[in-house]
Every structure is written in C-alpha cells, then in structure tokens.
Amino acid sequence: MHFRVQQGHCLQLLGREREALAIYNSVLKSKPEDPALLAIINNNLVSINRAANVFDSRKRMKTAMAPGLEHKLTSYQRSTISLNHCLLAYHTNQDEVCRTEAQNLQKEYPQMTLKVQVIKAAQLGREGKLAESRAILTKCLQENPDQNLNLSLMTTQILLSKGKKKAACEVLTSLEESDMYRQGVVSALVALYMSLGERDGASAVLRQAVEWHKKNKTSAVHLGELWRHAADFHLRSGDAPTAAASLLELRKLNPKDVNTLAQLITAYARYDVSAAQRLSRQLPPVSSIVGNVDGDGLEASVGHRYFKKIQQARGEGSPSSPASPKSATTPGTDIKKTKKKKKKRKPRLPKNYNPNVQADPERWLPKWQRKGYRKKKDRRVKDVMKGTQGVSSEAADKFDITKTAGQHKPAQAVISPQPESQGPRRNMQKKKSGGKKKKGGGW
Fold this sequence. Notes:
Mean pLDDT: 79
Radius of gyration: 46 Å
Distance between the termini: 94 Å
Structural class: mainly alpha
Order of helices and strands: HHHHHHHHHHHHHHHHHHHHH
Number of strands: 0
Shape: extended
C-alpha cells in the first residue's frame, strides 16, 4: 500500500491528478490500519480538492489531524498538514480559525513564516484592508528578495480582486527587466492597459519587450511568439508600419511560413500598396490550395438555400434557371433598383361619422368601466325558502328561530361558581348523608 501511495504522490506532482485520485481511492477501499498512511492520503485528497468540495475536505482534514500522529509523521509532513488546515479555513471564510491556526503554525514551525505572512496578507486584502496587506508583502519582499516575482504577482492579484488596475500595472512595471519581459507578465500588462483604454502604454510594453529579447538573444521560439502577438496587436490597433516591422523579423526566422507572408501583405496593403503587390507574387497559386476541392460536394454540404439567399441579396437569378426577358438588358443601359412603395390603406370610418364632433374618449373601454354604466338589478329571489320541501313561506316563518327570537323570554342563566386554585388532590371520601336509604340499596 505504501508503494501505491508513493506512486499516487508522484503522479499528483506531475499534474496527473485523476490517476492519483484513483490510486488513493483504491487504497482507502482496502481500509488500511496505519493511521499515518490515512493521514497522508486524506491530506493529498484535500490538496486535490482545493477550494471545491469543501465538506469532503473538512472530513478528510479531521482524519489527517487526528490525535496521536505526532510521533508517526515527520515534522515536514505535520507542518504541511497544518498549513493545509489553515488554507482550508481561509477558503471556507473562517477568519478567526484561520488567524489562530496561522499563529500556531508560525510558533511551531518558524520555517513557514513566509507562507503564514502571505495568508495574512490575503485575508486582509479580502477584508478590504489593502494598505495593511501591501505593507506585509513589502516587508516579506525585503526579507526574501529571491521571491520578488512571486510576491509581486501576489500583490497584483490582491489589487485586482478589488479592481485596482492602475496600481497593479505599477507593481508589474516595477519588476526587474528579466521578470517584467516574460511572456505571461507582458500579456498581463497589455490586457490591463487595454482595459484602462491606454493603447499607447500597451504598444510601448510590446516594443520594449521585443527590443529586450533582441539584445539578450533569447530563443527563436519565444521571440517568434512575441513578434507574432505584437504584430496582431498593432494590426488590430491600426499601427500597420510597426506590425509590418515585427512580421519582417518573424519572416527572417521562418521564410517559408505562408501565414506570416499573408499577414505581411495585409499590413503593407494599408499604407504601401506597391510593396503588397510585389509580395503577393510570392504567394502560392490558388490551384495548389484549392486544386483537390470538390465544388459540387462542398455546395451540397452547405445547402442550396444558402446560395439562394446570397443570390437574392445580390439580385441575381438562380444559375440553373434561364434569364427572363424582363431581366435581359443591353450592356450600355443602367438599372436602378427601385423599392416597391407600400400602399397606405385608408382608415375605415363609421357611417354616422361626423368630423366636427369630438369622438367619445371612452369608446375603447369596456362598458362596465365607463362612467355612465349602471349595473342591472338582480331580480332573483333573495328570500330562500326554509323548512321542509313544499312548505309555504308563512309556515316556514314559524320554524325560523331568528324571527321568533323576541317572543320567548330569555332563560335565567345559572351562575356556577368558578373553581379555585387548589393544591394536590387528597383521597378524601365524602361523608354519607344521614337520610334513609331506599330499599334495594338505591337512593
């Protein structure tokens, strides 16, 4: 089992988390008795879950932090489990638990101080205390200059979570040139400048990145990708000469790339048509690209309705139908397409319509909503017959208690004494009266 868990750990480090998850679950199904092995498996499953499946992670973290594992795990394993517990509390918004766990982690394992400070900064940033969070990360940067890029990216992420794009750009531009002109950082800066509406700033970042990579002679692959992205950006922003310069450099790396040639022709066509025409002669002939394409099969796959719509939009007839004599014209005549005017129908007026009399404003309302409407009287019999079937109304009045209520005298109400509050019952028998008993023992 230990070997299988080690195999799952290696697969997890390689990014093959599904395979590692399958191995961990298969080991758990066999119900191992070693508590240290269970703690390691559950900790690794929590790291696979991350912020998702929080309830499952809580259960597994309890197993990983079960008492009695102090002497069965190494200090590195125990510190990692405690750090994961702190991160789980952070992701589940348990701020107090996260603070206490971070303090305990820093006391027990001083080597985890940097990670604890980062967790505190992230928690303060989520609460909106950006100044305090940034101060903590700046202090960490002074104490750990080798972590410049990571801490700067953390600061940028905290600022972006609160919408501070300008401050995030300032943090990224303050990096060293070797870190600032990486592809990921350059793309992030370009995206941020574009979201702020500063095209000049994005263009300047791309130009500086290309020049820096030229001076330092980086690999052709990275430089080619950077040139291509710069050319696409400048073409979209309308700076064709700068895009053409980037594409020329890119073409030097790979002269046989047809896509680069086509993009270069597109860029030249915007400001130098003669250069675009000269380069267009180097393009391969159309027959080499479309030679093996079956036109009928392609048209059948698209559908005849699509072509009919295109022909109708152009004002052409179908290719199979002959031209009608109305549409046949001499080559010298011009045809102006006139739109058919829709005839307006005259409104129908009633026979007794008088234009001098103002129309009734309530004519479109239903009758029951108009002012002069009077509801019809309900002529149905309201007095319902009472009594048995076939009895007349006079006879029924005798049996109607509501009509004979005043004829009877009200009965005197017998006032009964209210029961008083008493204590618990006692088993007391009533004394028998001294009267004579009837014969037979009855009253």
